[in-house]
Input
Amino acid sequence: MKLSSPWFSSAIVAVAVISFSFVKSALADSYTIVDLGDDKGGIYGIDIAGDVVTWSGSGCGVSAPICYTTFVDGVASSEASTAPDLVYDDGTPCSSNPAGFNVSHSVCNNGLIGLGSFYNPNNDAMGVYLGSISNLQFLQGGTADQVFLNSAGDFAWTDGQDDELFEAIANPAPVQSFSLRENVVESSTPEPASLLLIGTGLLYFTAALRRKANR
Output
């Protein structure tokens, strides 16, 4: 029996659809938002480990005009009358801002951007955003009057509207365990080896069908 050319094409498309349907979709970055307390002064900085240092005009005694509080994982761990000796990783001014956003303050670091925006031309909600310029996530409402971002994606900001200090702590990437290989990070992008295997399989499949059709 001779098989028609459209049948070959349909078979190849079906195999390709089935193969790529097993590729898992990417999971969006997630964050844990922590309220660091009232804005009695401001944020001093954030270090590469995600520790945030705030400052205020009270809390360390009468003789200390400024008090510095260090937050580790969003929890106040120490106070001092002088700034702690931390390796700060606060980010830098952004060379550009996302299109469609009316940005009030922004900071960039390691391909990420944290910003506050209001009355956006694209009608997105007013508030605080974090992510890459092409893939921003809305964190919460309010303002971002001081912005700090480390290279790991931890973001700290002062909300002048509500007089509060906040930190968005980047959660670890999701991990899925397999019986033969553990701690594999989930990804939606097929690896080159997988693409090569699928492509080779399709070629062999097509050749086999052609041989059968020609008999």
Q: What stands out?
A: The chain is about 20% helix and 35% strand. Residues 192-214 form the longest helix (23 residues). The first strand starts at residue 31 and ends at 38.
